[in-house]
Design goal:
Elements lengths: L2 E3 L1 E4 L5 E4 L7 E4 L2 H21 L16 E3 L2 H16 L3 H8 L3 H7 L8 H10 L10
Antiparallel strand pairs: 1-5, 2-3, 3-4
Length: 139
Protein backbone atom coordinates (compact mmCIF):
# COMPACT_ATOMS: atom_id res chain seq x y z
CA UNK A 1 0.00 0.00 0.00
CA UNK A 2 1.04 3.55 -0.61
CA UNK A 3 1.51 5.74 2.48
CA UNK A 4 2.02 9.38 1.61
CA UNK A 5 3.78 11.66 4.09
CA UNK A 6 1.84 14.78 5.00
CA UNK A 7 2.67 18.21 6.27
CA UNK A 8 0.37 19.47 9.05
CA UNK A 9 0.19 23.19 9.72
CA UNK A 10 -2.16 25.35 11.77
CA UNK A 11 -3.84 27.95 9.61
CA UNK A 12 -4.94 31.44 10.68
CA UNK A 13 -8.35 30.34 12.00
CA UNK A 14 -6.96 27.49 14.12
CA UNK A 15 -7.78 24.66 11.73
CA UNK A 16 -5.14 22.18 10.62
CA UNK A 17 -4.06 22.36 6.99
CA UNK A 18 -2.84 19.09 5.47
CA UNK A 19 -0.69 19.07 2.36
CA UNK A 20 1.18 16.31 0.55
CA UNK A 21 4.75 17.00 -0.56
CA UNK A 22 4.47 14.27 -3.23
CA UNK A 23 1.01 15.27 -4.51
CA UNK A 24 0.76 19.07 -4.54
CA UNK A 25 -2.80 18.93 -5.92
CA UNK A 26 -4.04 17.40 -2.65
CA UNK A 27 -4.80 19.60 0.35
CA UNK A 28 -7.34 19.45 3.12
CA UNK A 29 -8.28 20.91 6.48
CA UNK A 30 -9.78 19.74 9.75
CA UNK A 31 -10.60 21.06 13.17
CA UNK A 32 -8.19 18.58 14.76
CA UNK A 33 -5.53 16.14 13.59
CA UNK A 34 -7.89 13.14 13.29
CA UNK A 35 -10.43 15.07 11.21
CA UNK A 36 -7.69 16.66 9.10
CA UNK A 37 -6.14 13.27 8.29
CA UNK A 38 -9.53 11.72 7.52
CA UNK A 39 -10.31 14.59 5.15
CA UNK A 40 -6.83 14.26 3.69
CA UNK A 41 -7.57 10.76 2.38
CA UNK A 42 -10.54 12.15 0.46
CA UNK A 43 -8.36 14.97 -0.90
CA UNK A 44 -5.68 12.49 -1.92
CA UNK A 45 -8.17 10.30 -3.78
CA UNK A 46 -9.56 13.40 -5.54
CA UNK A 47 -6.06 14.42 -6.62
CA UNK A 48 -5.43 10.89 -7.90
CA UNK A 49 -8.52 11.23 -10.09
CA UNK A 50 -6.95 14.35 -11.62
CA UNK A 51 -3.80 12.39 -12.46
CA UNK A 52 -5.91 9.61 -13.99
CA UNK A 53 -7.97 12.09 -16.05
CA UNK A 54 -4.84 13.84 -17.29
CA UNK A 55 -3.14 10.50 -18.04
CA UNK A 56 -0.18 11.38 -15.83
CA UNK A 57 1.67 8.99 -13.55
CA UNK A 58 0.75 9.31 -9.90
CA UNK A 59 3.99 9.90 -7.99
CA UNK A 60 4.98 7.16 -5.58
CA UNK A 61 5.16 8.30 -1.97
CA UNK A 62 8.48 9.46 -0.61
CA UNK A 63 9.78 8.02 2.62
CA UNK A 64 8.29 9.69 5.69
CA UNK A 65 10.71 11.30 8.09
CA UNK A 66 10.83 9.95 11.61
CA UNK A 67 7.63 10.99 13.41
CA UNK A 68 6.03 12.38 10.24
CA UNK A 69 2.35 11.47 9.82
CA UNK A 70 1.19 9.65 6.70
CA UNK A 71 -2.06 8.96 4.90
CA UNK A 72 -2.34 5.42 3.55
CA UNK A 73 -4.32 4.61 0.45
CA UNK A 74 -6.54 1.52 0.70
CA UNK A 75 -5.02 -1.52 -1.02
CA UNK A 76 -7.57 -1.44 -3.84
CA UNK A 77 -6.83 2.22 -4.59
CA UNK A 78 -3.10 1.47 -4.55
CA UNK A 79 -3.68 -1.32 -7.10
CA UNK A 80 -5.62 1.12 -9.30
CA UNK A 81 -2.81 3.68 -9.08
CA UNK A 82 -0.27 1.04 -10.08
CA UNK A 83 -2.50 -0.04 -12.98
CA UNK A 84 -3.04 3.51 -14.23
CA UNK A 85 0.69 4.23 -13.94
CA UNK A 86 1.52 1.13 -15.96
CA UNK A 87 -0.96 2.17 -18.62
CA UNK A 88 0.71 5.59 -18.85
CA UNK A 89 4.18 4.01 -19.08
CA UNK A 90 3.08 1.68 -21.87
CA UNK A 91 0.95 4.27 -23.67
CA UNK A 92 -2.17 2.10 -23.33
CA UNK A 93 -5.42 4.06 -23.46
CA UNK A 94 -8.63 3.04 -21.72
CA UNK A 95 -10.20 2.00 -25.04
CA UNK A 96 -7.27 -0.32 -25.73
CA UNK A 97 -7.51 -1.85 -22.26
CA UNK A 98 -11.24 -2.36 -22.77
CA UNK A 99 -10.51 -4.18 -26.04
CA UNK A 100 -7.87 -6.39 -24.43
CA UNK A 101 -10.15 -7.26 -21.50
CA UNK A 102 -13.24 -7.57 -23.72
CA UNK A 103 -15.08 -5.08 -21.50
CA UNK A 104 -17.15 -1.99 -22.22
CA UNK A 105 -15.81 1.52 -21.56
CA UNK A 106 -18.04 2.15 -18.51
CA UNK A 107 -16.48 -0.92 -16.88
CA UNK A 108 -12.99 0.46 -17.54
CA UNK A 109 -14.03 3.86 -16.20
CA UNK A 110 -15.12 2.17 -12.96
CA UNK A 111 -11.94 0.08 -12.88
CA UNK A 112 -9.91 3.30 -12.89
CA UNK A 113 -12.15 5.15 -10.45
CA UNK A 114 -10.46 5.30 -7.02
CA UNK A 115 -13.84 5.54 -5.31
CA UNK A 116 -15.40 2.52 -7.03
CA UNK A 117 -15.16 -0.84 -5.32
CA UNK A 118 -13.77 -2.86 -8.24
CA UNK A 119 -13.07 -6.55 -8.10
CA UNK A 120 -9.43 -7.38 -7.53
CA UNK A 121 -9.55 -10.20 -10.07
CA UNK A 122 -10.43 -7.68 -12.81
CA UNK A 123 -7.43 -5.56 -11.85
CA UNK A 124 -5.26 -8.69 -11.91
CA UNK A 125 -6.52 -9.52 -15.42
CA UNK A 126 -5.78 -5.97 -16.55
CA UNK A 127 -2.19 -6.29 -15.32
CA UNK A 128 -1.88 -9.61 -17.17
CA UNK A 129 -3.02 -7.92 -20.38
CA UNK A 130 -0.25 -5.38 -19.82
CA UNK A 131 2.30 -8.15 -19.36
CA UNK A 132 2.55 -7.58 -15.61
CA UNK A 133 1.49 -9.38 -12.44
CA UNK A 134 -0.10 -7.83 -9.35
CA UNK A 135 1.70 -9.04 -6.24
CA UNK A 136 0.02 -8.72 -2.84
CA UNK A 137 1.82 -9.18 0.47
CA UNK A 138 1.10 -8.89 4.17
CA UNK A 139 3.51 -6.85 6.27
Amino acid sequence: MYSYPVHLEKDTNGSLLVTFPDIPEAASVGDDEDEALLNALDALESAIEIYFDEKREVPAPSKARKGQRTVTLPALVTAKVLLANEMVRQGVRKAELARRLELHMPQIDRLLDPRHSSKLDTIERAFEKLGKRLDVSVV
